[in-house]
Amino acid sequence: MLQVRNLHKSYQDQHVLRGVEFDIHQGQVKAVLGPSGSGKSTMLRLMALLEPANDGEILLRGQRLGVRQRGTTTVPLPERELAKERRDIGMVFQKFNLFPHLSACRNVMLGLTSVQNIPAKEAEERAMAMLERVGLSHRAGHYPSELSGGQQQRVAIARALVMNPSVLLFDEPTSALDPELVGEVLDVMEGLANDGMTMIVVTHEVRFARRVADQVTLFDSGVIVEQASPDEFFDNPQHQRTRKFLSHVH
Ligand SMILES: Nc1ncnc2c1ncn2[C@@H]1O[C@H](COP(=O)(O)OP(=O)(O)O)[C@@H](O)[C@H]1O
Ligand SMILES: [Mg+2]
After folding, report:
1. Each residue of 28-38: pLDDT tens digit?
2. Hey, whose CA ends up nearest to atom 12 of ligand 1?
3. 80 located within any domain
4. Is 24 contained in some domain?
5. Three-state SS string across the chain, please?
6. Nearest-angstrom CA–CA distance, 12 and 54
């Protein structure tokens, strides 16, 4: 369903992504592990169309994202068109990024009312259904400051889900949480995976990766080093780099 081909990204003279390639099928969960600074967040930002790539392609159901073909050249999409494509790709950040002056329900509704022009009543119903799905319908009227970090992240997941994306990208969704709050967020994510959501999860949660992911990837210095099923990846890694990485996280 989603294909990434030869993706490159540089900042000034730093070549951060150096030819990233992978496929993910509908309903699959891909866990991405890798050291800090290896380009994992950059890859997700490119996939979420928050920044343009320098080279390479991202295809969703065979359709190239972020660009339009004009004759023999490809040109970046204008912002309006980009915004439309972005709706199909949900993103959950390490730091939640909720609006502090809006209740949980209003945070979840906002994309529907302001981006999709959906009437408030329908948006509220859909937002409430998503809060229910992440186990927070009883906190709908609370502001972010009145919620725990785990609850805030679950609101952020509901906010991404309500747009009905084809794929959900997670950038270290539990890294900013106190240890005792990590489980409730991972449980929600596992539930989504079981419901068939297509997900790419950058994480340090090795146990989650092993239990929930269909493929596990080691990312290092802007390239994919190893990509395999969880059993293969953890029990029989093919690359020395993977063995070294795993020796630090186990
Ligand atoms: N907007 C940016 N401008 C300049 N350098 C950046 C920018 N975003 C990321 N980088 C650099 O790209 C490298 C990879 O960053 P990042 O994708 O955040 O890695 P990871 O998520 O794996 O820790 C880092 O060296 C970082 O400093
Ligand atoms: Mg990162």
Report:
1. 999 999 999 99
2. 16
3. no
4. no
5. CEEEEEEEEEECCEEEEEEEEEEECCCCEEEEECCCCCCHHHHHHHHCCCCCCCEEEEEECCEECCEEEECCEEEECCHHHHHHHHCCEEEECCCCCCCCCCCHHHHHHHHHHHHCCCCHHHHHHHHHHHHHHCCCHHHCCCCHHHCCHHHHHHHHHHHHHCCCCCEEEEECCCCCCCHHHHHHHHHHHHHHHHCCCEEEEECCCHHHHHHHCCEEEEEECCEEEEEECHHHHHHCCCCHHHHHHHHHHC
6. 12
238 part of a folded domain: no
> Cα of 37 to ligand 1 centre, how many Å?
6
> What is the pLDDT at residue 88?
94
In a domain, 151, yes or no: yes
Closest ligand to Cα 37? 1
Q: Which residues surround ligand 2, an ion (CB under 5 A)?
A: 40-41
Q: How many domains does the chain have?
A: 1
Question: What domain range includes position 151?
Answer: 99-164
Task: Summarize pLDDT for 216-226 with one digit per residue, the tens.
Answer: 999 999 999 99
How does residue 70 score in pLDDT terms, banded at 50, 70 and 90? confident
Residue to probe by mutation, ligand 1, list 8, 11, 17, 217, most atoms within 8 Å of CB:
11
**Where residue 131 sits, what CATH number does that domain have?**
1.20.1580.10
> What confidence score (pLDDT) does residue 250 get?
61
- CA angle 28–31–33, rounded 5-degree value: 165
Is pLDDT of 71 > 90? no
